[in-house]
Amino acid sequence: MQKQCPECGEKIVGRIDKKFCSDACRNSYNNRINKDSKNLIRNTNNRLRKNYRILEELNPDKKTRTSRAKLIEKGFDFNYFTSIYTTKVGTVYYFVYDQGYLPLENDYYALVKRED
């Protein structure tokens, strides 16, 4: 019994555990199957990367202060961050990897860099 390629229907020749007739069919099949989830992941990672670059640019000295307007002007999206850190006294920091921000009064933010 000959196996058929799930992408193009051609007969598969070669190893018994081979699933596709060629690398092109394997790539085409996997790209088609994973298209939707890959777009979501790619878009999320792009937003996180952009947020990280903005925080890194505005915080070269590892600790500074900036306004909400400046963050928004640069394209920062407050909906995307990688973790939340709450101190013992209840202060909540939002982090994009090792770059963090703390909401202050009057639409200002403290920017910090987490030390390992």
Please describe what this structure looks like:
- The chain has 116 residues and is an alpha+beta fold.
- The protein has a domain at 37-113.
- The protein has helices spanning 23-33, 35-58, 68-73, and strands at 63-67, 83-86, 92-96, 99-103, 108-113.
- A 5-stranded antiparallel β-sheet has the order 1-5-4-3-2.
- It is elongated and about 70 Å long.
Distance between the termini: 58 Å
What's the total count of β strands? 5
If you compute it from the alpha carbons, what radius of gyration comes out, rounded to the nearest whole angstrom? 23 Å
Runs in which pLDDT lies below 50 for 5 or more consecutive residues are: none
Question: Total helix count?
Answer: 3
The largest sheet, given as strand count, sense and whether it forms a barrel, is:
5 strands, antiparallel
The portion of residues forming beta strands comes to 15-25%
User: Helix content range of the residues, please?
Assistant: 25-40%
Shape annotation: elongated
Q: What is the element string, with H for helices and E for strands?
A: HHEHEEEE
Mean pLDDT: 92
